[in-house]
Amino acid sequence: MPDVRCAGHPFRLSSTPVVAGMTNSSPKVQLSSFLAKYSAPVRTIARAALRKLGTAVPGSNQLVYDNYNALAIGFSPTERASDAVLSIAVYPRWVSLFFLQAVGLPDPARLLKGSSKKVRHIVLSTASDLDRPEIQALITTALLRATVPFTPAARSRLVIKSISAKQRPRRPT
Question: Which domain holds residue 66?
Fold first, then answer.
């Protein structure tokens, strides 16, 4: 499939994305290869955060976008990115938890950062930040308010949605 431009950056769209040397690799193997590009501390936080959210959001489709700026894994009740409620974004120096339907999300501890009208985030110092009661409350509220509800009995799936042909360095310079 040809490269497509999104916001000026080429990326490959395919039901079976191709990564050099990974033509027939499973989504799990591909995600591991994407994470391997990051430093050990960032990779450790990202993997632990993904495990914790995977447990917290049963029945979710984990939609993977290996983009120009970051690796993003959205948690959605469907395979549509627009239905995603939460995501983990991995950057060279940090990992963030994004709330993708944050409009009106109560945040009494004022943890949410960002100026977007719809999306807010929290930078995770460690994956155990996800265990903090105020962050747990934000996650629970976000899931309860999802525009499309999750079906906990549904089978969770890992879906590689896009891989950018051009990427910024994944390790700090």
Answer: 3-164
